Amino acid sequence: MIKIGVDAMGGDLxxxxxxxxxxxxxxxxxxxxxxxxxxxxxxxxxxxSNERITIVNCPKVLDMGEHDPVKAIRKDRFEASLCVMMNDxxxxxxxxxxxxxxxxxxxxxxxxxxxxxPQVERIALCPIIPxxxxxxxxxxxxxxxxxxxxxxxxxxxxxxxxxxxAVLGTQNPKVGLLNIGAEEGKGRPVDKETYEVLxxxxxxxxxxxxxxxxxxxxxxxxxxxxxxTGNVCMKTMEGTAKAMAKMLKEEIKSSFGGIIGYxxxxxxxxxxxxxxxxxxxxxxxxxxxxxxxxxxxxNSDSYAFYNAIKQGINMVKNEVINHIIESLPKEEDxxxxx
Length: 338
Prior knowledge:
The chain is α/β, with parallel strands linked by helices. Helix content is 46%, strand content 16%.
């Protein structure tokens, strides 16, 4: 049986999302057990008895607006739902962790409690993003690190390659470096150095630079950059999508013709919205640690959280962590680079 840990109290909707999603998973996957971490007195009344759902009582919940994640994790590491779940992941009591709790708390807890894999100096937050061809892409890092050295980005590109193959089913994913121009030699000194390191990494299929205006129509299956740039890119996409949706609604409502046109295009617009909806994806993977961790959006409803759990199940079934460990630099690789 696959054992999935769920931070039941995390996110903006809390139990309203996590319990419904967990019940649907249990119904759809006969080889999965769910461990709900949270306040038992709040969970139990809303949960029908099920032999494949276990409540792990945790008296505290990390606040979504937590300003000092490191302090919060260290203070409540044996009481907060997110921390108890990750402690159990470290102890191999569960196979994956799913949460929609505060992003920095999730990253810090994964780093401090589950721990990084051997030889890994940096972990990355890696969401799955939509693409015009209908095939999702990976974007990383989007916030686990403000800055990354070229060798860190190169190793994370190896992890993303493994994840793309296992989670998205790509055969030989291409890696693109997010940069201000497509030509080699563009960008800051660190970007130029990173380009050379990626080009010489024999464990990845390096394509070259990818410009920001190509992110949603990417020629590569993986887009990689530092955490600051990636976070700006991701939030710009999210903000643009929301603004365009709002403008479209305003234009439709502005005239009788717009309303009539909407009635004819209702199905098309619904399909368009679904293609761009983050709820269809699930969440962001944290790459570089010893257990699959999926960070769902803070505002995830039960449908989005269900997809996040599915993502975790797929990572376990495809043995993503074992494949990432196999991709770590061997001693002979280090000798070659010296």
